[in-house]
Amino acid sequence: MSSSSSSGASQTTLNGQVTEKLTRTNYVLWRTHVTPHLRGAGIFGYVDGTTPEPAKLHVTKDKDGKESAEPNPLHPIWVREDQQVLGYLLSTLSKEVLIAVTKVTTAHALWTAVAGMVSSQFMSRVNNIRTTLINAQKGNQTVAAYFASLRGLADELAAAGKAIQDDELISYIIHGLDVDYQPLISALDAHVTPVSLDELYAMLSNFD
Length: 208
Prior knowledge:
Layout: H1 4-13, H2 27-40, H3 44-48, E1 57-61, E2 67-71, H4 74-90, H5 95-98, H6 107-135, H7 143-159, H8 166-175, H9 182-189, H10 197-207
Antiparallel strand pairs: 1-2
Helix pairs in contact: 4-6, 6-7
Pfam family, one: Retrotran_gag_2
């Protein structure tokens, strides 16, 4: 977006519908969704700060050293393009986020604001999910429901950029089994090679 022609092309590119609007709980998914659009349009520098705002005035000196200032023609171009990016980003925000950034005036400021807004809540959610995994118990749930519950929590961590390996998820699943499953747990401990999630599911289903 360094020229009016590229600006028009980028604006067209950014007119595509964004289905993953930013809420207070889906920042990673939202960022994953919008970043390729921004990079593909060649305008990611406006949000990450690597395309900074140029000076409003262009200062020059004559042969006698006298300074004079003239409007910098690059400044209004940058403002126009930055506002296009800002408008695109604002269109991807849910109402609950939008009302918190009404005073933001540039794309970079918005990008920084939403990241800061969700960071503490984001880490709190990740910690809560991990605590839920640690304390999970099968209880009276069916094997299918138990697996679906823990796999859903693991998927949430992955979506948040904090994915866990299958062997860690398996340890949580086994940890949540009650004493009735002790023979199966003992058999798993005796395995020479670790079982996969699918194998564990089949073993638990057969045991029931």
